[in-house]
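[step 3/7] fold_predict: job queued, chain A
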Amino acid sequence: MQQRATPVRHASLVMGLVALAIGFVPAAKAGPPNDTKPYGLTHRIAAKPYLNMPARADGKVPLLLSQTGAFSDTRQRIPSNGLIPYDLIVAFWSDGASKTRWVAIPKEKIKYSASGQWIFPPGTVFVKNFDLPVKASDPNVKRRLETRLLVRDSAGGVYGVTYKWRADESDADLLPDSLHEDISIKTATGEPRRQTWYYPSRKDCLTCHTAGAGGVLGVKTRQLNREITYPAGVTDNELRSWSHIGLFDQEIPINELDNIPTLAASDDTTRSLEDRARSYLDANCSHCHHPGGTVAYFDARYTTPLAQQGLIDGPVLIDQGIDRPRVISPHDVWRSIAFMRVNTDGDIRMPPLARETIDQKGVALLSQWILSLPGRAVLDPPTLSRPGGTYNAPLAVALHDSEPGAAIHYTLDGSEPDASDPLYQAPIEITDTKIVRARAFKDGFTRSITAQEVYTIGP
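[step 4/7] structure written:
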């Protein structure tokens, strides 16, 4: 059955009920003696530990989202009493989906860290909705896809579950395993296109939400030191509000908020290009790329000084067949393996889970940063006029480079071409199986990486 897409509506009555449920009543006066700005959160309502979820991953998980206790009205997605909305400065790329986030925190306090992971009390439940825009001409038309719950269990770890929304949006069903689904998207011309959506399994959740990453990924100081408008209409710094209602085991000095290391939104041009690019890598890569995390040579955390991250000119474990590869190669997107893996939806894509599309804005940001780094101009690899594959008859393959005056040298035996190999002057005749490899050269430029195609002639 085709699920219906509905415009996002902002009903004042619903928002009012939400505000009353979680304590968003504007305060006339708050903060330090000379601070008259109202708090977005005025008092704490401790949530029921675990809501209706089991304390351990092997417990009985509700089959319906409406049974979890996350929402007082599941169809309208009105949060239950005590759930706190939050947002992040830089969100993990989720194939273009918009996300709304809530957290239910029991009466115990969060162990706060200015630069590291927060430790949430057992019974904390994170609730995240995923809605996908399905009409290019109206981004407010979205389809509900899933709601994920992440639970801080009684043993100090976490477990996650996924609920897939029904076609009529009345409820969402617990998924027993991962699932791929093709979603119809109406393009700007009105023509439909298909986008694959991946619903993660419980095992998938633990691939990223590891003990080394703190279990909880996005909710940390550098992500929440930001302004947010709460349901009652009050705009406040998230850390300021959370500290005010006593969520942390220590008070955060409000006058120090400006000195806390904080991520930079990709479109925040008041922050440097370097800050924005490193923030993007933090949000999308640091849950695995940190000391003690995945086997790699670099640390993607923004709180690690750039000179110590192993990013710029950092060595790589897997070179992808590129000469002189680096994690980030200054002024050279072609030899920057981190960029290559972000800029693909193929098998080598990063992050490897729950990502089926390329974040074009993120790719553009990383490219702009890499090209801003000092270094020689780099030649693009030559293009080959025919894709590799099996052909029934001989063919001619033309080579082209975008840089005027560049010389293209090639080989047909699979070896790496250099300046002593044949100079390309006319289309290459392919009469039997050949590996065509080509590279561009020009004085004053860094040579291109090698372009390659394999041609087989036969029935």
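[step 5/7] annotate
The radius of gyration is 26 Å.
The mean pLDDT is 91.
exit 0
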